[in-house]
Structures are given as structure tokens and as C-alpha cells.
Amino acid sequence: MNKHLQIGILGLLISFLGALPLGTLNITAFQIAVFHDVSNALWFASGVVLVEILAVRLTLSWTKNIDFSHKAFFYILPLIALVLLYLSFNSFVAIVDGNTFGENPMPIPEIKSSFFLGLFLSTLNPMHLPFWMSWNNVLRSKQKLLRTNGIYVSYLIGIGLGSIGGLLIFILLGNYFLESFNQFVQTISLIIGCIYFSFAVYMIFSLYRYHFKLKTL
């Protein structure tokens, strides 16, 4: 198989499978598709993927200069937790207000553009860099990710397509709920709010565990 095609397929598979586990980004894509439309959700996904591709390109170019010390996560985790708590609160408010489809505001009202919301939330995602650094090292050790012309481009294209594909599943699910389960809007808001809240609690727990570890060193 052509090396460019092979690395493109590998990038696609890795990013597609990485986009499937429940997380802030795919849940938000689902929420936008439910409460707005597929077009807005696709713009959101485009912003998410753009940041991911830039993050991967960063890991490919400056791996040795990237410091993933725990101090970086100590500063970013509180911000992520606050954003997740806000998203959770916003979903619960939709229940109290009795919103129906099409009336729910964007998860972060100050950001009116779904594309910029995707950029914002994807930038706050702490897993882009360590996830892709790990996979880059694996692929390089297997002699799949070579430093030759066009290989990186094929790799990044595959990653972009895979991430869009993974998010598209959640977008289509959201559209399906919009068309078939309009009466369950409050239940959907409750589930999404609980998921966001669970992620926030996990981030706070991770911050506490790390802080406690620092104190004992």
C-alpha cells in the first residue's frame, strides 16, 4: 500500500475512534444538533477539528520543546472545570425554563458562532497534545510516520476526516432526536447536564489529586 495512503488511513482510524468516547466536544456537537440544526453543529465540528489539526502539527514539529509537566495541567484544569460547570448549569436552566427545540441558547451565550465555540472548547481540551504525542511516537517506532515530503500532510488530512466522521455520528444522533423525540427535550437536557457535571467533577478530582501529590513531594 502507498505510504501516504497508509498513514492517512491510520490517522483517520485513530482520530475517528478517539472521537467516539463521550467527551465535552462530541456531547456539545450533539447538543447543538438537537437544539439548533445540523449546519451549526457542522460549523462547531469544523472549529474543533481545526484546533486538533494545529495541535497535531505542533506535536510533529516541536515535540522535544513541549513541556507536559503537571504544572501546566494545574493551571488549565480549573478553567476547564469552570467551563464544564457552566455548560452543566446552562443545560439544567433549559429544563427549569421549559425550553423546546430551537429555543435553547448556545452552550456559551457570549459566543454566538458555533465555529468559534468549537475553537474555544477544542483549545481547552487538555487531551489533544498528550494523545497525539503518544500516537506519533507509536507510529514513528513502527516506521509508519516518516519525516518525508507529503507524509505529514496525508497524516493530518486523515486525522481531520476521522475526527469529522466521529463527531458526525453525534451530530446525526442529535438530528435524529430532533426529528423523532421532540417530547423528550427536558430528558435530553438533563442527561447532557449530568454528563457535563460528571466531567467537571472528574477535572476537580484530578486537580485535587495532583495538588495533594505536590504537597507530599
Structure explained in plain terms:
By secondary structure, the chain is an all-alpha fold. Helices cover 77% and strands 0% of the residues. The chain contains 8 helices and no strands. The longest helix is centred in the last third of the chain and has 32 residues, at 185-216. The N and C termini lie far apart (50 Å). Residues 100-105 have low confidence and may be disordered.
The chain-level mean pLDDT equals: 77
Beta content = under 5%
Helix content: over 70%
Largest sheet: none
Rg computed from alpha carbons, rounded to a whole number of angstroms: 19 Å
Shape: globular
Topology (elements, then pairings):
Layout: H1 3-18, H2 24-35, H3 38-62, H4 70-97, H5 114-124, H6 128-141, H7 151-180, H8 185-216
Helix pairs in contact: 1-7, 2-3, 2-7, 2-8, 3-5, 3-6, 3-7, 4-8
Key descriptive features of the protein:
217 residues, mainly alpha, single chain
Summarize the structure.
This protein has 217 residues and is mainly alpha-helical.
